[in-house]
Amino acid sequence: MTSGASPERLAVLDAMALTSDPGLEAAFPESAHRILADLVSGGAALGWVEPPSRDEVEELLRHVLSAVRAGDAALRTAYLGRRLVGLGYWQRYARPTHRPHADLEKIAVDAAAHGRGVGRALTAALVADAREADIEVLTLDARGDNTHALHLYRTLGFTEYGRLPDFVAVGESRYDKVFCVLDLRREG
User: Fold this and answer.
1) For residue 1, what are the CA distances in angstroms to 4, 158?
2) Is position 114 within any domain?
3) What's the pLDDT tens digit per position in 119-161?
4) Is the terminal CB of the chain with fewer CB neighbours within 10 Å at N or C?
5) Residue 3, domain member (yes or no)
6) How far apart are the C-alpha atoms of 154 and 77, rounded to whole Å?
7) At 136, which CATH number?
8) What value, to the nearest 5°, has the Cα angle with vertex 80 and ends 77 and 86?
9) Is the pLDDT reported for residue 52 higher than 60?
10) Are 105 and 75 a contacting pair, CB within 8 Å?
11) Do the domain assignments include residue 96?
12) 2 pLDDT tier (thresholds 50, 70, 90)
């Protein structure tokens, strides 16, 4: 027996699909700001101590989309219906000697969508994008108390390669900064 309402299906879009839908593209900066600001307000480890301003998020997104157009980044967004529930991106390192490598800089999932596989779907899509872009090594860092994210990254093949104890300062609290790597050369 089935219930009357079917659950919304998760859709993970790349930057091209996002920008080809005028409605999604127009709502994206505000929706991304809401997610990031709400998560940071709740103490999420996303690189801000205070929630970012709308202008800060819009500038970040412009920068990422510009890098995507240049072939130096990938952006993924996750939607339930037409509601943005997550976003993530990686960017290629700028130094010429590091160009085959990229840093997974941000994965953010709306708190209301936690536990629905959004973070896994975004991260897996970004790893696939990195392979397609001939990225050899994908790195990331996470705050040491972000155990759910660190577990997710391990299950997707990332390994810890370093840790700076008590490096991240949030008020009086101190957290380790954990560095992880996924060597895509070993898979090919």
Assistant:
1) 10, 41
2) yes
3) 999 999 999 999 999 999 999 999 999 999 999 999 999 999 9
4) N
5) no
6) 22
7) 3.40.630.30
8) 35
9) yes
10) no
11) yes
12) very low
Q: Which amino acid is at 164?
A: L
77 in a domain, yes or no? yes
> In the chain, how many domains are there?
1
The sign of the dihedral angle between the CA atoms of 168, 72, 122, 13 is positive
Question: Whole domain around residue 48: which residue ranges?
Answer: 10-187
Closest CA to 18 of 86, 108, 95: 86
CA distances from 160 to 35, 46, 68, 88, 150 (A): 27, 19, 27, 20, 9
Please determine, for residue 4, whether its predicted confidence score (pLDDT) is greater than 60: no
Task: Read off the amino acid at residue 12.
Answer: V
Tokens of 61: 């997104």
The DSSP 8-state label assigned to residue 7 in this structure reads P
pLDDT of residue 5: 54
145 phi, psi to nearest 5 deg: -85, 0
pLDDT at 186 over 90: no
